[in-house]
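Your task
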Amino acid sequence: MRPIYLFSISSHPDAISINSLDITFLQPEIDFSKYDYLIITSKQASKALQEYNKKEYINKPALCISKQSAKSFEDLGGQVLAVGGGYGDNLIEQIKSFPKEKKWLYLRAKIVASDFVFTCKEDGYVIGEKVVYESDCSGAIDNVTVQDDAVLIFTSPSSVKCFLKNHSLLHTHKIIVIGKTTAKAIPKNCSYILSDETTIESCMQIAHSLK
Protein backbone atom coordinates (compact mmCIF):
# COMPACT_ATOMS: atom_id res chain seq x y z
CA MET A 1 0.00 0.00 0.00
CA ARG A 2 1.41 3.37 -1.00
CA PRO A 3 1.56 5.98 1.77
CA ILE A 4 -0.95 8.78 1.21
CA TYR A 5 0.05 12.38 1.96
CA LEU A 6 -2.71 14.98 2.18
CA PHE A 7 -1.55 18.58 1.77
CA SER A 8 -4.39 20.64 3.18
CA ILE A 9 -5.51 22.67 6.16
CA SER A 10 -7.97 19.81 6.78
CA SER A 11 -7.06 16.26 7.77
CA HIS A 12 -8.20 12.70 7.01
CA PRO A 13 -7.71 9.63 9.22
CA ASP A 14 -6.44 7.49 6.33
CA ALA A 15 -3.74 9.94 5.23
CA ILE A 16 -0.57 11.51 6.54
CA SER A 17 -2.08 14.96 6.90
CA ILE A 18 0.33 17.84 6.35
CA ASN A 19 -1.00 21.28 7.22
CA SER A 20 0.14 23.17 4.14
CA LEU A 21 -0.71 26.72 5.19
CA ASP A 22 -0.53 28.94 8.25
CA ILE A 23 -3.58 31.22 8.35
CA THR A 24 -3.61 34.75 9.78
CA PHE A 25 -6.95 36.48 10.31
CA LEU A 26 -6.81 40.22 9.62
CA GLN A 27 -10.15 41.61 10.92
CA PRO A 28 -10.52 44.68 8.66
CA GLU A 29 -13.35 47.10 9.48
CA ILE A 30 -16.55 46.02 7.70
CA ASP A 31 -19.94 47.74 7.50
CA PHE A 32 -22.13 44.71 6.80
CA SER A 33 -25.25 46.90 6.55
CA LYS A 34 -24.11 48.08 3.10
CA TYR A 35 -24.54 44.61 1.57
CA ASP A 36 -27.37 42.22 0.75
CA TYR A 37 -25.39 39.00 0.36
CA LEU A 38 -22.04 37.51 1.30
CA ILE A 39 -19.73 35.44 -0.90
CA ILE A 40 -17.91 32.63 0.93
CA THR A 41 -15.25 30.66 -0.96
CA SER A 42 -13.49 28.89 1.92
CA LYS A 43 -13.94 27.64 5.46
CA GLN A 44 -11.41 30.27 6.53
CA ALA A 45 -13.80 33.04 5.46
CA SER A 46 -16.40 31.68 7.87
CA LYS A 47 -13.79 31.40 10.61
CA ALA A 48 -12.84 35.04 9.94
CA LEU A 49 -16.47 36.06 10.53
CA GLN A 50 -16.16 34.85 14.12
CA GLU A 51 -13.97 37.92 14.75
CA TYR A 52 -17.05 40.13 14.20
CA ASN A 53 -20.31 40.81 16.02
CA LYS A 54 -22.59 38.00 14.87
CA LYS A 55 -25.65 40.25 14.82
CA GLU A 56 -24.06 42.34 12.08
CA TYR A 57 -23.70 39.56 9.49
CA ILE A 58 -25.80 36.55 10.46
CA ASN A 59 -28.90 37.72 8.55
CA LYS A 60 -26.94 38.13 5.31
CA PRO A 61 -27.45 35.00 3.15
CA ALA A 62 -24.24 33.67 1.60
CA LEU A 63 -23.37 32.37 -1.83
CA CYS A 64 -20.92 29.55 -1.08
CA ILE A 65 -18.44 28.01 -3.47
CA SER A 66 -18.85 24.41 -2.27
CA LYS A 67 -20.70 22.11 0.11
CA GLN A 68 -17.82 22.40 2.57
CA SER A 69 -17.83 26.21 2.62
CA ALA A 70 -21.64 26.16 2.88
CA LYS A 71 -21.47 23.87 5.91
CA SER A 72 -18.92 26.15 7.58
CA PHE A 73 -21.31 29.11 7.19
CA GLU A 74 -24.33 27.09 8.34
CA ASP A 75 -22.35 26.01 11.41
CA LEU A 76 -22.24 29.70 12.36
CA GLY A 77 -26.02 29.83 12.09
CA GLY A 78 -26.04 31.49 8.68
CA GLN A 79 -28.40 30.94 5.75
CA VAL A 80 -26.94 29.65 2.48
CA LEU A 81 -28.26 31.46 -0.58
CA ALA A 82 -26.84 28.99 -3.12
CA VAL A 83 -23.92 26.58 -3.53
CA GLY A 84 -21.51 26.68 -6.47
CA GLY A 85 -19.76 23.77 -8.11
CA GLY A 86 -16.46 24.11 -6.29
CA TYR A 87 -14.82 26.71 -8.56
CA GLY A 88 -14.82 30.49 -8.42
CA ASP A 89 -15.74 30.70 -12.09
CA ASN A 90 -18.94 28.75 -11.36
CA LEU A 91 -20.12 31.63 -9.17
CA ILE A 92 -20.40 34.02 -12.12
CA GLU A 93 -23.61 32.42 -13.38
CA GLN A 94 -25.02 32.30 -9.85
CA ILE A 95 -24.34 36.01 -9.24
CA LYS A 96 -25.77 36.98 -12.62
CA SER A 97 -29.05 35.26 -11.75
CA PHE A 98 -29.70 38.05 -9.22
CA PRO A 99 -30.65 41.68 -9.96
CA LYS A 100 -27.73 44.06 -10.46
CA GLU A 101 -29.14 46.26 -7.69
CA LYS A 102 -28.13 43.66 -5.10
CA LYS A 103 -24.86 44.37 -3.30
CA TRP A 104 -22.42 41.55 -2.56
CA LEU A 105 -19.53 41.31 -0.10
CA TYR A 106 -16.73 38.92 -0.99
CA LEU A 107 -14.82 37.80 2.12
CA ARG A 108 -11.54 36.73 0.59
CA ALA A 109 -7.94 35.75 1.06
CA LYS A 110 -5.10 38.12 0.24
CA ILE A 111 -4.26 35.99 -2.82
CA VAL A 112 -7.07 34.36 -4.82
CA ALA A 113 -7.01 32.00 -7.80
CA SER A 114 -10.16 33.11 -9.63
CA ASP A 115 -11.10 36.44 -11.23
CA PHE A 116 -14.87 35.90 -11.04
CA VAL A 117 -15.33 39.19 -9.18
CA PHE A 118 -13.64 41.17 -11.96
CA THR A 119 -15.83 39.45 -14.57
CA CYS A 120 -19.03 40.28 -12.67
CA LYS A 121 -17.99 43.88 -12.03
CA GLU A 122 -17.31 44.30 -15.75
CA ASP A 123 -20.98 43.44 -16.31
CA GLY A 124 -22.18 45.99 -13.77
CA TYR A 125 -22.62 43.89 -10.63
CA VAL A 126 -21.76 45.52 -7.31
CA ILE A 127 -19.27 43.44 -5.33
CA GLY A 128 -17.30 44.78 -2.40
CA GLU A 129 -14.17 42.93 -1.32
CA LYS A 130 -12.57 42.59 2.09
CA VAL A 131 -9.34 40.67 2.69
CA VAL A 132 -10.14 38.87 5.93
CA TYR A 133 -7.24 36.41 6.02
CA GLU A 134 -3.89 35.63 4.46
CA SER A 135 -1.91 32.43 4.23
CA ASP A 136 1.77 31.52 4.24
CA CYS A 137 3.53 28.22 3.65
CA SER A 138 3.70 26.24 6.88
CA GLY A 139 6.81 24.83 8.50
CA ALA A 140 5.18 21.40 8.26
CA ILE A 141 5.12 21.40 4.45
CA ASP A 142 8.59 22.96 4.26
CA ASN A 143 10.14 20.16 6.32
CA VAL A 144 8.10 17.08 5.41
CA THR A 145 9.91 13.99 4.10
CA VAL A 146 7.90 12.26 1.37
CA GLN A 147 8.52 8.67 0.25
CA ASP A 148 9.33 8.12 -3.42
CA ASP A 149 6.31 5.85 -4.00
CA ALA A 150 3.81 8.08 -2.19
CA VAL A 151 0.38 9.25 -3.26
CA LEU A 152 0.26 13.04 -2.97
CA ILE A 153 -3.07 14.85 -2.64
CA PHE A 154 -3.08 18.60 -3.24
CA THR A 155 -6.18 20.60 -2.31
CA SER A 156 -5.29 24.10 -3.51
CA PRO A 157 -2.84 25.90 -5.80
CA SER A 158 -1.10 27.20 -2.67
CA SER A 159 -0.49 23.69 -1.37
CA VAL A 160 1.26 22.80 -4.65
CA LYS A 161 3.36 25.97 -4.69
CA CYS A 162 4.38 25.55 -1.05
CA PHE A 163 5.39 21.92 -1.62
CA LEU A 164 7.49 22.83 -4.65
CA LYS A 165 9.42 25.47 -2.71
CA ASN A 166 11.55 22.76 -1.05
CA HIS A 167 10.55 19.51 -2.78
CA SER A 168 10.22 17.97 -6.23
CA LEU A 169 7.48 15.88 -7.79
CA LEU A 170 8.89 12.53 -8.95
CA HIS A 171 7.66 10.27 -11.74
CA THR A 172 7.23 7.59 -9.04
CA HIS A 173 4.69 9.75 -7.18
CA LYS A 174 0.97 9.42 -7.83
CA ILE A 175 -0.51 12.92 -7.78
CA ILE A 176 -4.18 13.67 -7.11
CA VAL A 177 -5.59 17.20 -7.30
CA ILE A 178 -8.87 18.51 -5.94
CA GLY A 179 -10.03 20.48 -8.96
CA LYS A 180 -9.05 22.23 -12.17
CA THR A 181 -7.70 25.34 -10.44
CA THR A 182 -5.28 23.25 -8.37
CA ALA A 183 -4.35 21.23 -11.46
CA LYS A 184 -3.08 24.40 -13.16
CA ALA A 185 -0.40 24.71 -10.46
CA ILE A 186 1.07 21.28 -11.25
CA PRO A 187 4.21 21.50 -13.46
CA LYS A 188 3.55 20.77 -17.13
CA ASN A 189 5.77 17.68 -17.19
CA CYS A 190 3.91 15.95 -14.32
CA SER A 191 0.88 13.73 -14.77
CA TYR A 192 -1.94 13.86 -12.25
CA ILE A 193 -5.43 12.55 -11.54
CA LEU A 194 -8.29 15.04 -11.20
CA SER A 195 -10.82 14.22 -8.47
CA ASP A 196 -14.42 13.59 -9.54
CA GLU A 197 -15.68 16.06 -6.93
CA THR A 198 -13.95 18.97 -5.21
CA THR A 199 -13.80 17.13 -1.89
CA ILE A 200 -11.04 15.42 0.08
CA GLU A 201 -13.18 12.29 0.31
CA SER A 202 -13.30 12.05 -3.48
CA CYS A 203 -9.49 12.30 -3.59
CA MET A 204 -9.16 9.63 -0.91
CA GLN A 205 -11.35 7.23 -2.87
CA ILE A 206 -8.97 7.57 -5.82
CA ALA A 207 -5.94 7.18 -3.56
CA HIS A 208 -7.26 3.91 -2.12
CA SER A 209 -7.74 2.53 -5.63
CA LEU A 210 -4.09 3.10 -6.62
CA LYS A 211 -1.55 0.29 -6.35
Q: What stands out?
A: The domain at 4-19+138-209 is CATH 3.40.50.10090 (Rossmann fold). The first helix runs from residue 43 to 49.
